[in-house]
Design goal:
With 94 residues, the chain is α+β, with helices and mostly antiparallel strands. A two-stranded antiparallel ribbon has the order 1-2. Strand 1 and strand 2 form a beta hairpin.
Length: 94
């Protein structure tokens, strides 16, 4: 049976061993080449009875982590809620 990687010409193969705890190391060459650092997520997809595809999950900005970065991005000092509300209410009077 022809496997997916057999169909891609010039693909380099790596062999690793599954530990007793079911862990597998990603070869250093791949980690460096694909910027796979600690905390990076991957998805395992079963292709056939003896073939698995591993997909790297793209980093997407977490909106909750972005909170508080607005002033740094806009280049202005932090403001209190009262200050913001005062500015908004002044705009209503026009």
């Amino acid at each position: 049976m022809m496997k997916l990687h057999d169909m891609i010409e010039g693909m380099k193969s790596y062999t690793t061993t599954i530990t007793e705890r079911g862990q597998v190391s990603i070869p250093a060459d791949l980690r460096k080449n694909m910027a796979l650092d600690a905390g990076k997520k991957v998805v395992w997809e079963k292709i056939s009875e003896d073939e698995v595809r591993i997909l790297v999950v793209k980093d997407e900005p977490d909106p909750m982590k972005m909170l508080g970065y607005g002033p740094k991005v806009r280049g202005e000092p932090a403001r209190s809620t009262q200050s913001w509300m005062r500015e908004l209410r002044e705009g209503e009077e026009d």
